[in-house]
Design brief:
disordered N terminus; 73% helix; mainly alpha; Serine Threonine Protein Phosphatase 5, Tetratricopeptide repeat
Length: 242
């Protein structure tokens, strides 16, 4: 039920970053960071490193996250996973949510650091509490599977719900599964159908198959309710994410 890809999510983290810690850095530092990020996104990794390294040395947490990613992926610098984790750790301790998330994934996968599920949960939680949907989803996975934390379907459902409402398609799919099975939530095929339908609308193929399988179990009245709920969920997500 989980298909997290380390490098892709790291890239998404950087692309999504909007200087949430801007109040802690100067306007000049923010401008320099934006130049480094723009260079990275343009594929000019040499320039990205030139802008980012001085900022990281000055303590800029987002720059540390970006530099950590460059070392992880070998973009503009020789790949160095241990150094990557070091930068993620520094940024994470300063409160950068994406550094916290990337550090968590490093511990979860054992990339550049010994695999440690408890540490992964710790940092997923820190990032999740700051509203990072990928972290909320991954924390839900850890709780559903009992990795690094006691298995708890109810808490898993709560975290999936938070991520799902932000448009995270895998969280929507996993939440629907829990509603179908009645794990952590009361079994509710109407709600399961609705969340599968929301995920299917984003192109999640397995969710489409599950939605269609549940459809045959619903009465005409319940199907109408499920479709109306799906429409409302999608409307709410659109309002939240735009």
């Amino acid at each position: 039920m989980r298909s997290t890809i380390r490098g892709v999510l790291s890239v998404v983290s950087v692309l999504a970053f909007s200087c949430s810690l801007a109040g802690l850095v100067s306007a000049a530092e923010t401008k320099l960071y934006d130049k480094g990020l723009a260079a990275y996104n343009a594929g000019d990794y040499t320039a990205a490193y030139k802008f980012t390294m001085p900022l990281a040395n000055q303590g800029h947490p987002a720059a540390k996250n970006l530099l950590g990613m460059m070392y992880e992926l070998g973009k503009g610098v020789p790949q160095d996973l241990a150094r990557s984790v070091s930068y993620y750790r520094q940024g994470a301790k300063q409160g950068d949510p994406y550094a916290q998330y990337n550090l968590a994934v490093s511990f979860d996968s054992g990339t550049g650091v010994p695999q440690n599920y408890r540490e992964a949960v710790r940092w997923f939680r820190r990032a999740a509490e700051q509203g990072i949907s990928a972290a909320q989803y991954d924390l839900g996975v850890m709780m559903e599977r009992g990795r690094g934390v006691d298995k708890n379907f109810q808490k898993a459902a709560n975290w999936y719900q938070k991520a799902a409402k932000q448009g995270h398609v895998q969280a929507q799919n996993n939440l629907a599964w829990l509603y179908e099975k009645g794990q952590g939530v009361e079994r509710d095929l109407v709600t399961a159908y609705a969340w599968f339908d929301v995920a299917a609308a984003q192109g999640f193929e397995s969710a489409q198959h599950k939605r269609d399988a549940i459809k045959v179990e619903l009465t005409a009245g319940d199907l109408d309710k499920a479709q109306a709920r799906s429409t409302q969920l999608r409307k709410n997500i659109l309002q939240t994410t735009h």
